[in-house]
Structures are given as C-alpha cells and as structure tokens.
C-alpha cells in the first residue's frame, strides 16, 4: 500500500479510500511548466524589441496562465480520487470533481482502448498521462466534466498511481453492493 513517492497510503474519514494520481500526471505538467517559462522568456525578449506595451500585456496573460498551471499541479496531490461506501469521487486537481454512485458502476478494468468509445461518451480524468483504469457505467450518466461542464458519459478513464489497489477495492465494493441488492430481492 505504498504510494509511488514512498508515503504510506492512508484511508480517509469513514472508511473512504484515497487513490493518488499525482505521481503519473505531475511530472509531465512540471516539464510543461518549465517549457512554458522558457517560451515566455524568449517571446518577451523578442516582443519587447517591437512593443514594450505588447510585451507587458503578453507577460500578464502568460504569467496568469503559468500561475493557474502551477496551482493545478499543486492541487493534484491534495485532491485524490476517493472511494467511499456508496460512491466514487473522480477528481483531477481543481479541474474536475464528479461523484459516481457505486450502484451505477458495472465494473472496472485495467487498460483503455479509445476506439471503443464514441466521442464525448468517455470522461477522461487524466492530463497528459495514458489512462490505466477504465470504469464502465451501467447506463449513461450526466457527470460534471472539466471546469464543471456537465456531459453524458458511459465510462470514466483514470490514470492512477496504484491501479491494482484501486481495481481490487472498487470491484470488491461493487460486487458487495450487487450481493446485498440480490439478497434483499
């Protein structure tokens, strides 16, 4: 149960399990931020020869974008994917926060084949990283996508640091929920 950065995975409150993804996503975003900073410096030098006002305006816009990217990178560690007794909370930093009821999940599997899904029917909760977990839903659900825009999805793709632990925990809870439902019927 150790995370990729050596920290011990701790359960959240009320038996909620935490599943981190920053180890797969953050390194690529740090490289992107470094490249953006280099690009900002070069463009500033070139543009300042033509117009200082234009260079300043571009600096403000680029600086704000770079700060938003840094805030996103730092939020990845603080906002893990959560699995509690009745729902899966899919997160991607401050960009995405979607709750999927466990009784709407058919199963989860490792891997992902993008050709199997209609455009828009797959909620990809990953940035720059190849998804390693696919959660298939029993029916199409309206879920909030990036930045809160709602969309109808049939599956959720995740890029997690510990996919095997996630698959075991989620499939165990889904099967238990199905067993409880069939026993009640």
Task: Give a brief rundown of this model.
By secondary structure, the protein is an alpha+beta fold. Helices cover 42% and strands 26% of the residues.
Topology:
Elements: E1 17-19, H1 22-50, H2 52-78, E2 81-83, E3 87-92, E4 96-101, E5 105-110, E6 122-125, E7 133-144, E8 150-158, H3 163-184
Parallel strand pairs: 6-8
Antiparallel strand pairs: 1-2, 2-3, 3-4, 5-7, 7-8
Overall description:
With 185 residues, the chain is an alpha+beta fold. It has one domain (15-185). It is built from 3 helices and 8 strands; from the N terminus they run βααβββββββα. It has helices at residues 22-50, 52-78, 163-184; strands at 17-19, 81-83, 87-92, 96-101, 105-110, 122-125, 133-144, 150-158. The strands form 2 sheets. The chain has a 4-stranded antiparallel β-sheet, covered by helices on one side. A 4-stranded mixed β-sheet has the order 5-7-8-6, with helices on one face. Strand 3 and strand 4 form a beta hairpin. Helix 1 packs antiparallel against helix 2 (52-78). The longest helix has 29 residues, at 22-50. The chain is elongated. 25% of the residues are buried. Mean pLDDT is 84; it is low at 1-8.
